[in-house]
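Structure tokens please, single chain.
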Amino acid sequence: MSGQTFDVVVIGGGPVGEVAAERAAKGGFKVALIEHELFGGECSYWACVPSKALLRPGNLLAAAKRMPGVVVGDALDPAQVFTRRDWFIGRDDPQGQDHGQVGWARGVGIEPIRGYARISGEREVTLSDGQVLTARHGVIVCTGSVPRTPPIPGLDTIKPWGSREATSSSAVPARLGVLGGGVVGVEMAQAWARLGAQVHLIITGKRPLPRLPEFAGDLVLAGLRADGVIVHTGSGIDEVSAVDGGGASLKLTGGEDLVVDELLVATGRVPATGDVGLDVLGLPTDGPLEVDESGLVSAVDGGWLYAAGDVTGRALLTHQGKYAARVAGDSVAARGRGETVSTAPWSRYSATADHHAVPQVVFTDPEVASVGATEAREGSADRVVDIDIAVAGSALTADGYTGKARMVVDTDRGVVLGVTFVGQDVAEMLHSATIAVVGEVPLDRLWHAVPAFPTVSEVWLRLLETYGL
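Here you go.
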């Protein structure tokens, strides 16, 4: 393989890299996909998939308890939960944890190569074993992101959990500390509390999920506390020290001392650009790779370097990264064929949704599902409509159903800019909101999208009625 030339070389074999490689291969190009760990990446083995496998049983048990007549137990069986999670991530597969992804790559015409890769020159990538690959048309960087580690004194004296350890452990800690009120923090706090751990969630503000509407954080906070999670608001960790026999002693902001068996540090992620070889190109190695709408790194001459996913810092979500990867893969293929690539908004070669319609679900109980704007734009005539989710469908879904919905409307154009739902089982309603935002469906036309009765989606009718239609 030494000295081979490909049309396109993709660095990073996670979901984003796989999609970018597939799109380029479908364009008729010879593509190499390089991965130093497992093909399928972070989301498949350490993040999205295993975390939801840990969360789903607890959500189902809680839902069943809200329904009279359903006979259920009081607690989960952790061993069975872990066994099901392990099946999803292929942990015990005798052929290798990622053999299915490797086979898929070869089946669609991609050459999977295992190893570390660094950009070593123009259209050139060098592997850790010394092999040099040349790309005729483009290199696409899809190296994702890595956890951000806060500078807490003494943190290096213990072995804290990151998101990988939190989704991979098969032992329930008696006492778990979770630092951070973002998505990873709240999801893992609830998952492990329902598996039997005493969980302490430590957050800096009054509520978790600070980037979402306040009612979302308030309802998730109530859900966490209902599961026994002890939430330390307006707090942080000033110092960490190891405890004899294992565990950690935490000195919280404000002076409180707390001892835990494991500490999950969930304080965000940063683009993984530090070891890709960007220094060879004179680019910074401590921040995101800035790209245009087609995924092209415009700071590099020659139009050959692309990037997609978390590494660009645009929208750190797997589905959004795959969307950008489709754009990048299609763009490099089209340019390689000598075609004109238009990056006009909403065109095939433009990741426009990154700016206007990024959908996200927080898989806690209650769930949070949001897309687009969460509040009115400053200085605009936008209108925010907030209502309770109180329709026949929600009442039938669960006794005591508690949920809220928000719709942000551009009153000048009469279109929806964003929607947020909070409540049990709202995740599956998100795509309808995404279509409304991306399609800029006029409200007077949306009025004719009649929701079936009795479903929770009837909340759309209530939102439009409240708006004044």
